[in-house]
Write a structure and sequence with these properties.
- With 220 residues, the chain is of the alpha/beta class.
- Helices cover 43% and strands 20% of the residues.
- It has eight helices and eleven strands.
- The strands form three sheets. A five-stranded parallel sheet has the order 2-1-3-4-5, sandwiched between helices. The protein has a four-stranded antiparallel sheet with strand order 6-7-8-9, with helices on one face. It has a two-stranded antiparallel ribbon with strand order 10-11.
- Helix 2 runs parallel beside helix 3 and helix 6 packs across helix 8.
- The longest helix is centred in the C-terminal third of the chain and has 17 residues.
- The chain is elongated and about 55 Å long.
- Bound molecules: calcium ion.
- Calcium ion (CA) binds next to loops.
- The site of calcium ion (CA) has 5 residues, from loops.
């Protein structure tokens, strides 16, 4: 899952990006509202963390513009303002949730997960397909109760495929949702990761859960 952090306090933005990447999310940073608008036009984000007080274009307006463009992307607003009006205004403009600064990182993570769940079909925090189970909170995967140890990137790919099970996912779409802007993006990288995931699934006895649809991508 790919997240855009829109935050002009550099230290906070960097800390959030680091924390989110450790959890297997791809995270990009926009340091003002204008940059955020540009990046959301170019990239396909699963969630936007949006500070309310931003240079150039204010967070509420960024939110308005994203919604006006018809995007359903999840938006978590950050606000230093604790006034009720500001929070209500943010939610009315289409934010899914808000967090008042200062906050603890685990709370931000929990809200990010809740919004991502809302986007999917299910509100169950655990992803299951047959006997394959992924727990995004713990970043752990299981097959018939035995743990399969995935790297965070492998986990992120499998999580994306599971959230989109039944739909063919191209390598480009995976690059778009699982890697951030700084990554050297080669479809070969996706192939290598898919190969490793397949081999781990096979070793665990799960068989060939991921099929290749020639010329189009992968299907779980
Ligand atoms: Ca700010």
């Amino acid at each position: 899952m790919r997240i855009l952090i829109t935050e002009d306090e550099k230290d906070l933005a960097d800390a959030l990006a680091r924390g989110l990447r450790q959890q297997g999310y791809a995270a990009d940073i926009a340091s003002d509202g204008e940059e955020a608008m540009m990046m959301t036009e170019v990239n396909n984000y699963d969630l936007i963390i949006l500070d309310l007080n931003l240079p150039k274009i204010d967070g509420v307006e960024v939110c308005q513009r994203i919604r006006a463009a018809g995007s359903p992307v999840g938006i978590l607003m950050l606000t230093a303002r604790s006034s009720l009006d500001d929070r209500v205004n943010g939610l009315d403009q289409g934010a899914d949730d808000y967090l008042v600064k200062p906050f603890h990182f685990p709370e931000l993570l929990a809200r990010v997960r809740a919004i991502l769940r809302r986007e999917g079909e299910t509100r169950d925090p655990i992803l299951r397909i047959g006997d394959l189970v992924l727990d995004p909170n713990a970043i752990k995967g299981y097959y018939r109760g035995s743990e399969i140890v995935f790297t965070t990137k492998e986990f992120a790919i499998l999580e994306y495929l599971m959230r989109n099970a039944g739909r063919v996912i191209s390598q480009e779409e995976l690059l778009e949702h699982v890697w951030n802007e700084d990554a050297n993006m080669f479809t070969q990288t996706v192939k290598v990761h898919i190969k490793n995931i397949r081999s781990k699934l096979n070793t665990a006895g799960a068989g060939d859960l991921i099929s290749t649809v020639k010329g189009r991508g992968y299907l779980l």
